[in-house]
Amino acid sequence: xxxxxxSSKTRIKLLLKFFLNPRSSAYLRGLESEFGESSNxxxxxxxxxxxxxxxxxxxKGNKRMFKANQNHPLFLELRNIVLKHLGVDKIxxxxxxxxxxxxxxxxxxxxxxxxxxxxxxxxxxxxxxREYLSNLVEKAENLLDRKIRxxxxxxxxxxxxxxxxxxxxxxxxx
Length: 174
Prior knowledge:
The chain is of the alpha+beta class. The protein has helices at residues 2-5, 9-20, 28-35, 39-51, 75-86, 88-95, 130-144, and strands spanning 25-27, 55-60, 63-68, 100-108, 119-128, 147-153, 169-173. The chain has two domains: 2-75, Winged helix-like DNA-binding domain superfamily/Winged helix DNA-binding domain (Arc Repressor Mutant, subunit A), CATH 1.10.10.10; 87-173, 2-Layer Sandwich (Beta Polymerase, domain 2), CATH 3.30.460. It is globular. The mean pLDDT is 87.
């Protein structure tokens, strides 16, 4: 979907990186190795985003770090577009309300880090009908054309998830 609207693959990768998980920050050389693209192309896009006010930069040691500007008027809209591009909005709307007593849902894996690998990793906390979940996930995978992997934890098993904010991105809360 985004590829039809935005011709720059680097720009799409940066949108995913910074607007999927707004707590993430990165620097030029780290993005270069993560994306496998030239530092020049990434630098141009970072500068465009910063000039538009979508990204903020700050110094950390000798590195210039970038982070999404959550105060920008378009931040929420861009984040919603990224979530829709990945299909996360469909998961939230279609699957979670039908599962039973779900307390929290977290994105994890590469997607929580802003990398689109075609796989959506979820951690579901609560008491759910696992057979029904399996059927819904199968249907959602066909609809989204993405693989969905999931783990289901009880409340007591999931106490450490909210403390690992780098690895687990809360996307739904009861």
